[in-house]
Protein 1
Amino acid sequence: MEFIDLKRQYRRIEKEIGEAIRRVLESSRFILGEEVEAFEEEIARFVGVPYAISCSSGTDALLLALMAVGVHSGDEVIVPAFTFFATAEVVALLGAKPVFVDILPDTYNIDPEKVEEAITSRTKAIIAVSLYGQCADFDELLDIADRKGLWLIEDAAQSLGAKYKGRNSCSIAHVSATSFFPAKPLGCYGDGGCVFTADESIAFKIKALRNHGQVERYRHKFIGINGRLDALQAAVLREKLKIFPEEIELRQVVAGRYDVLLKEKGIEPPVIRNYNFSVYAQYTVKVPNRNAVSRYLQREGIPTAVHYPIPIPYQEAFSHFGYEWGSFPEAERASKEVLSLPFHPYINMEEQIKVVEALAEAVAFLG
Ligand SMILES: *Cc1c(COP(=O)(O)O)cnc(C)c1O
């Protein structure tokens, strides 16, 4: 069993992917160009935003978003303590300070009340991560950002295709960033990412920044990066985007089956707010004695993953901030208890039964 079985998806669209790749090879246009532009139009339409600017990864999408809103050295940016490292890494890379805020215990998303307490005169932006495919609490966060004159950025690396009160992830915050890393809900065959916004001047800046700050050939208005999406990835993504709506529905079916199977065994399924529609980038449960449970499952041939074992403030790279254990109790608890189960649109009922039976056994023995 695979944790995320990308081969099943490939088998389904093998012919189309082959043709798309050949189309790019025949064109000999490998960087930006028509294929990338067509993909940007299609993904902007899918999300329902005026501007989609593709780029080289989800990390670069976040970096470009921060550069475009003008995050500089000395600024502070509020980030959740429990996320993938890149969310805070890009802040520090720009010389700004990531100010960590604890999460809500049930959804693992940033706690809006604690966000308000963390704001200072140096705060420039808030990055809300929509973790595991479920949107953060955007009404509260937008209210805070607008009242305090801050930029709200969605780290939507895990949530493309999700909805919050009927609104699409990537269309809610001032600027949103997603990832096309192969294992994300919409993945390419390498690295890729995209920034979304309704703000014309931010979109203009991001488009220049991803290509060395160029506004026309060899005219550099900004100091930017080489952060472009390549045409081969765009062509792959155009094919995958065609089946993505159906895959999002399949993700609901898979999650629904896990929910029922887990409840039968007395294990709590993930908490999804009734106004949220999750894409389940991860299907993550809480278990006691997590590391032993995970090892037990591994021996039974069931791969699991821990997203994430160490809260970001306690990472060695951020040791100079001097955060002490105990500062983020919810992030700490989550990092000890969370376990993500094998999940992808093509996992079948039999496999899911096998996962849940082994998990229930493990929890009964070790929990
Ligand atoms: C995957 C991920 C990123 C980084 O995306 P890459 O495409 O791997 O650079 C950033 N934030 C979160 C929450 C992620 O899950």
Protein 2
Amino acid sequence: MNLLYKSTRNSEKKVTASEAILKGLAEDGGLFVPEQIPTLDVTMEELKNMTYQETAYAVMKQFLTDFTEEELKHCIDSAYDSKFDTEVIAPLVKVGDVYHLELFHGATIAFKDMALSILPHLMTTSAKKNHVTKDIVILTATSGDTGKAAMAGFADVPGTKIIVFYPKNGVSRVQEMQMVTQKGANTSVVAIHGNFDNAQSGVKALFEDQVLAKELDAAGYQFSSANSINIGRLVPQVVYYVYAYAKLLQNDEIQSGEKINVTVPTGNFGNILAAYYAKQMGVPINKLICASNENKVLFDFFRTGTYDKNREFVLTSSPSMDILISSNLERLIYTIAGQDGQKNAELMDALKSSGAYEITKEMKAKLDDFVGGYATEEQTAQAIHDTYKRTGYVMDTHTAVASCVCAQYREESGDETKCLIASTASPYKFVGSVMRAIDAEYAGRDEFELVDELEKLSQVAVPNAVKEIRDAKILHTRECDADKMKETVKEILEIEV
Ligand SMILES: *Cc1c(COP(=O)(O)O)cnc(C)c1O
């Protein structure tokens, strides 16, 4: 069966998977969604014995139906190889009475590697399939992790350039060093004077700018996106929820058909949406627990049905979740609006003009699968501290938000369903905050000094991603104001300003 994709703002026009990947965002500003979510066509019994790569093929082939078996397998094998520091790619670790799905064993030690190690291959394959001759310019806004993971994937890939915008004072020291030391003649990094939402809105505006599109075209370029608005990011993320369930089954941690809860530390709503898609494919998932930090727009949304970004933006110790406009939520809104592109477009227009929208009662009733929760900075630090003292396991700040919200939910609801936590970053990436949470004595120390302390304490070897940047040369120093992103892109691409 051939699965087509349509925009969340207009259900008329349909494109193939490879076209959706190439475009990134639909021309009307909407996000591409599959016409329907396919049902898994392999059983859990079969999945139980599959490797990560085999699972990836079983899941992705149902979404990317215009890729041949050879093409898709080539993409998968090129992505999930020795760039990961473990053969199982995404290990499942039991910590106390919950299961952590460690998604940070790739090149840049955050979960973004799970999708961004394959996206460049999906993109270049899609370009070939659609006879694209122009260079693809990947434009990316990052709250810290996407930027590095995308550059690691696209560096020196022929026919591509990548430009990353990150908030100047909104990322950890390790994250910033990872980005500004990135090699590859086709990579550019820009620190913007603003926050992540400014970067993301700016990038979206560039995508929608038809004048710029013409200028790019004349210069031999076309834009695409490596943000999770690209369906090519989302589909590979469905894989690890299927894989995790099958492994829980294989390890006799659950019985066949037993439901599990999944808690996801959430920013742009991509990762948890992938879990929702996995549930729709048939994975026995009960509740999807959406964990926020103090930027708790989503918590308020699930409670009240009103999405309201008009509030103070808080810089937290989990910077990859410091987001007030969760772009992938649009895909869920579209679904609960009964796939009504016009209704969704009205709400998104309201969000753009007034910063808020309210969903109908009928729509809210369809959100039963989700539970929202949030953790304060203090609770997050406490979770890291307590888990370390109790079990010896060291979590990063984002994972700690999820761990905390998962425990709150259990206590408040009495729901004892077994819980999977999406563990999204290595503690080494946020070593300053992590060590301070473990012991206040570490406060104020240099992050790179603390790396060695963390190694002693956690007995987990310092990852290559951190070793590499210790002595690496800074290669990118470009900065710009949030309203000068267009000029900056033209400068980088050497298009007349
Ligand atoms: C990006 C990121 C998140 C948020 O994921 P979304 O898909 O944007 O919701 C959480 N934790 C870490 C470490 C991240 O890099």
